[in-house]
Write a structure and sequence with these properties.
Belongs to the archaeal Rpo11/eukaryotic RPB11/RPC19 RNA polymerase subunit family. This protein is of the alpha+beta class. The protein contains two helices and four strands; from the N terminus they run E-E-H-E-E-H.
């Protein structure tokens, strides 16, 4: 859900439901790396709510478009981490047979 002015598209607050610090801090970090962002921060209105408010103020571009770009960049980063992790696990399994590992495998 987006909360903002209909006339000034460069500033908006976005509410993300069923999310917490894990996603919000990653989004905030990614947004703050973007030179189009003048300010970005997030808050959780109440600890018992699974809701995050992310405030985005840009230097002129649409806050919605900048957030969308940040989320796409974050997905690319997550995919890279997942690929790197899966490769490391496969390499480990290839180089060390499971009988030498102290891991229960199903």
């Amino acid at each position: 859900m987006e909360h903002g002015s209909l006339t000034d598209l460069s500033s908006s607050t976005f509410s993300l439901m069923d999310e917490d610090h894990t996603l919000a801090n990653s989004v905030r970090f990614t947004l703050n790396q973007d030179p189009r962002v003048a300010f970005c921060g997030y808050s959780i209105p109440h600890p018992s709510d699974n809701k995050v408010n992310i405030r985005v103020q840009t230097t002129g571009d649409s806050a919605k478009d900048v957030l969308k770009d940040a989320l796409q960049n974050l997905m690319v980063m997550f995919q890279h981490v997942r690929t790197t992790f899966d490769k490391a696990v496969a390499d480990c399994k290839e180089n060390r047979p499971s009988e030498h590992m102290n891991i229960d495998t199903p």
